[in-house]
Amino acid sequence: MTRSRKALGLLVAIPLALIACTQVPAAAPAAPAAPVEVTREVEVTRIVEVTVAAPADAAAAAPTSTPAPAAPAAPSGFGETLKAIKARDKLICGVNSQVPGFGFVDSAGAFSGFDIDYCKALAAAIFNDVNKIEYRPLTAEQRFAALQSGEIDVLIRNTTWTLTRDTDNGSNFVATTFYDGQGIMVPKDANITKLEDLDGATICVQKGTTTELNLADQMAARNIQYTPAVFEDANGTFGAYAEGRCDAVTTDKSGLVSRRSVLPDPENHVILDVTLSKEPLGPMVRHGDDQWFDIVQWTVFATFAAEEFGITSENVDSVIASDTRPEVKRLLGADEKVDLGAKLGLSKDWAANVIKAVGNYGEIYDRNLGPNTKTAIPRGINSLYTNGGLLYAPPFR
Amino acid sequence: MANVPLPPATSPPRPNRAFWRDDRFIQFAAQFIVLAIVAGLLFLAFRNMADSLARQGIALGFGFLENAAGFDIGESLIRYANTDTFSRALLVGLLNTLLVSVLGIILATLLGIVVGIARLSGNWLVNRLAWLFIELMRNVPLLVLLIFIYTAFFLKLPRARQAISLGPLYLSNRGVAIPWGEPTETWPIYLYILIAAVGLAILAATGLRLWQERSGRPKPIVLPTLFVLLGIAGIGWLVLPQPPLQVTTPEIAAFNFKGGLVLTPEFMALLLGLVIYTAAFIGEIVRAGIQAVPKGQVEAARALGLSGRRTLQLVVFPQALRVIVPPLTSQYLNLTKNSSLAVAIGYPDLFAISGTIINQTGRAVEMIAIVMAVYLSVSLLTSVAMNWYNRRVRLVER
Q: Quick one: which of B75, B76, B89, B102 has its CA closest to B336?
């Protein structure tokens, strides 16, 4: 008797629950996702149908009605990311915390590195304040999900630009900030000079990276047998290599240089003179917000252009005051008639703020990877196109 | 729903109360509300996910599983190359999970029984040691235990060239190298002989048990059965023109060991961690089960003239099992699920491989769904098997 009544209850409850719930979201602020068709009379003789995305009042109401800072998920429609960043008054930057020179957290908990400086550049462009950043250290495996879900605004974590990541991951690369190539590091006393010497070896590699795939490709192409030992993060990978769990370790050459600097015996390890792949590294943003894409992209370009024009963090004020080159004036917001910042939804002096805060590309490079650092990497193709490198900013116009 | 009139014949006479004070209505309404809330939350979560995926232009689908995986896997029970599909890579991961789980369950049970019995030992030292083991192992988080075993023990072993040699066994930070049989041409034939041997051994055991029941006297069962099994297997081995297995012993080669079987430090650390962690719990379960058998049962068995071993075998253990099996099932399920911690030490189990696939394809929702479904299926199958066993050992009530 009781059982049959319960079953009856279930039967009644399920459809009722479904009906009840289909009505809930209509009232919730999830609605702005749907475009609203508005018929507007433009001229007396013509009626034009205009599709207006997300009514402004609904979108504006959303942040005030749901202030919960616990769920910082940023929406991803046009302009939504910048709006969300400004509303929360800080940029959330997904970074690496284990690769010195690129993204590293020191014993005091401070982040530093090449990628970190680009987070700061963005914060300077938006807030003119490099402290309004929350760094989210992510493993290689976590990074794309964190970007997809809106947990971070931008991913600047030595990530290689590939077609699949540009499409299937629901995210876009905006520019290459560092042209890298995959290398292999071995102990000096192992007498290994080329890939073929590694036949039968165990090679440490970090999980979920392009290096894992390139290694498989290159070894298969050369018909070299090897065993991968795959680890979750850079610390695990290089820790196992340092203990001799593997005969070699592979990652981007910049990563090898950087991690070698923190091995117990850096002088006993050599990086082979082979390059397994192209590894263009750069920031990534979510699909769906072209304004935010442009902001990140042109902030990167601003650092290239600044180096090209000879603008540094030290001379930027005098350049603003005295330089007469039109493009320089447009870039720095010194031209009275042109406001490039407004086109990005930023202040007029956004680029000047970026350069004041972190300097031009050359300064960022030297600070983190220059000859006086522990992680010195020759600039090579990461030079301006005028010096035979690949860095080239489109016109600021 | 509230207006459904109850047939007067079945409802006992009661004062004319408002329907919302009726117990039956309150029960029904409470269930309905809880169900509606749960369904609503699930629906909202699903809608939220679908919305955000749609906004980013991501379509759900499982077609990507047939694309080439592109990455290599360190250890695999089946043939696998980086040109194989993602689904095959997942299968490699699943088999690795099953391998470590099955071995873990067997070893944890054996060690657990030993620890549980030791815990009841009258010998002070044995008793205290078992107590120490249990309290130490079950009060350290498994993840910490695994990382400790891996980094502080296996990675600290000497390098391959200076491997510790224990007879034909080598211990190094490349793993444990043991002699291993490589199947030769006659192996498939030998497989049939083995099957025949097992079949005959089962027949012999059944026959002996029937004889024992009919005669009413204890007869030897285990030894003759083993004799049949090993005898046929041994004769088969000798009769074949070529031994079915070519035993190879590990030797130190240029980089790693050649020959034999190398159990990687990741596998060993995971297995060892799972076994000692779970054995600590199983030990307590075994002790509880044995102590749950009333003392009078043992005394009665002794009064009937049964020896100590026969008392354990015929009286104590069968009754202890019905207390032991249900919590033991939970421990088996825990062990299987805990094997996903392999990801922390680099053993390529199902969860680790799926993580790699998520990262290479961006298909987080699909992969997590698959992984959840697989773990659920494995756990449910384990439960079904253990429940069947539980019904067999349950006290038959008369």
A: B102
Assess if residue A392 is contained within a domain: no
Interface pTM, i.e. ipTM: 0.73
pLDDT tens digit sequence for A243-259? 889 999 999 988 899 89
Domain boundary among A259, A279, A299: A279
Residue B73 lies in a domain: no
Tokens of A238: 């290089």
Cβ atoms of A114 and A178 closer than 8 Å: yes
Measure A245 CA to nearest chain B CA, in Å: 6
pLDDT tens figures, B334-369: 999 999 999 889 899 999 999 888 888 878 888 999
Q: Which helix (H) or strand (E) holds A211?
A: helix A210-221
**Which domain covers residue A232, as residue numbers?**
180-279
d(CA A91, CA A81): 10
Residues A77, B53: C-beta atoms closer than 8 Å: no
Q: At what angle do helices B187-215 and B222-239 cross, to 10 degrees?
A: 160
Tell if the CB–CB gap between B40 and A20 is shorter than 8 Å: yes
**Buried b vs exposed e over A59-82: b needs ≥16 C-beta within 10 Å?**
beebbeeeeeeeebebbbbebbbb
* pLDDT given at position B222: 83
Q: Between β-strands A36-41 and B164-166, what pairing exists: parallel, antiparallel or unpaired?
A: unpaired
d(C-alpha A312, C-alpha A332), whole Å: 12
Backbone angles phi, psi at B99, to 5 degrees: -60, -50
Cα(B151)–Cα(B157) distance, integer angstroms: 10
Whether B52 is covered by a domain: the verdict is no
Question: In terms of CA atoms, which chain B residue is nearest residue A2?
Answer: B24
Q: Of B166, B121, B98, B40, whose CA–CA distance to B290 is shortest? A: B121
User: How many C-alpha atoms does B251 have within 13 Å on its Cβ side?
Assistant: 5
Q: What is the pLDDT of residues A194-226, one digit of tens each?
A: 888 998 899 999 987 888 888 999 999 999 989
Contact yes or no for B56 and A287 at CB 8 A: yes
The total domain count for chain A is 2
The residue among A261, A279, A297 that closes a domain is: A279
Domain harbouring B318, CATH code: 1.10.3720.10
Spatial strand order in the sheet of A154-155: A133-137, A91-95, A154-155, A284-286, A171-173
Residue A235 counted as domain residue? yes
Q: Which residues pair with A206 in a beta bridge?
A: A231
Residue A316 to residue A99: CA distance in whole angstroms: 30
Q: What is the number of CB-based contacts under 8 A between chain A and chain B? A: 172
Cβ-nearest to B36 among A13, A30, A243: A13
Interatomic CA distance for residues B138 and B331, integer angstroms: 12
Q: What is the spatial distance between Cα B11 and Cα B246, in angstroms, rounded to a whole number?
A: 78
A351 and A302 in contact (C-beta within 8 Å)? yes
Task: Give pLDDT tens digits for A95-151.
Answer: 999 889 999 998 888 999 999 999 999 999 999 999 999 999 998 888 998 998 889
Tell me the helices (H) and strands (E) count for chain A, helix number first. 15, 16
Answer yes or no: is pLDDT of A345 > 90: yes
User: Whole-angstrom Cα distance, residue B178 to residue B174?
Assistant: 12
Q: What is the rounded CA–CA span in Å between residue A183 and residue A211?
A: 9
Smallest CA–CA separation between A221 and chain B, in Å?
11
pLDDT by residue (tens digit) across A42-92? 434 444 444 444 444 443 433 433 333 333 444 568 999 999 999 999 999
